[in-house]
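User: Could you go from structure to sequence for me? I need the amino acid at each position, not a summary. Structure tokens:
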């Protein structure tokens, strides 16, 4: 399967926002994988949580797009100075938690009822120096 990875236009954000169940902020932007037929195959949204943390939101229809999407998202998300990548995932979304861990994040905190009543919010973190998706890992 062939696809192109590029910066997503704002009109495509709803594709990711509805799947990841997140709210767009004024600093939100995304990278998408587009198939030959023009359909979105995957998207990673980025949001600046703090000057040192970028938050990642992932949705995929074609897992084959994950490698290129992740590499580009980490490169631009971490930029030259950001130290951490963060993912906040509903505790009942085992597939997303497993994916975040597969990409290199580790669970650092669980907020009881943080997503909604009865559903924890799982905070997963990846330090820049642990990110295998960057061409060169920067050690602080």
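Assistant: Here is the amino acid at each position, in order:
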């Amino acid at each position: 399967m062939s696809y192109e990875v590029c910066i997503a236009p704002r009109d495509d954000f709803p594709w990711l926002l509805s799947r990841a169940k997140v709210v767009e902020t004024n600093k939100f932007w995304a990278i998408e994988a587009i198939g030959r037929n023009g359909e979105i195959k995957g998207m990673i949204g980025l949001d600046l949580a703090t000057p040192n943390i970028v938050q990642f939101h992932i949705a995929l229809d074609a897992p084959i797009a994950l490698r290129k999407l992740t590499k580009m998202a980490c490169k631009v998300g971490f930029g030259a100075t950001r130290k951490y990548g963060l993912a906040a995932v509903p505790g009942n979304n085992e597939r997303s938690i497993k994916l975040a861990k597969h990409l290199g994040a580790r669970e650092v905190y669980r907020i009881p009822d943080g997503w909604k009543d009865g559903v924890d919010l799982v905070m997963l973190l990846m330090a820049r120096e642990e990110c295998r998706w960057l061409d060169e890992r920067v050690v602080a």
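One structural detail worth keeping in mind: The mean pLDDT is 91.
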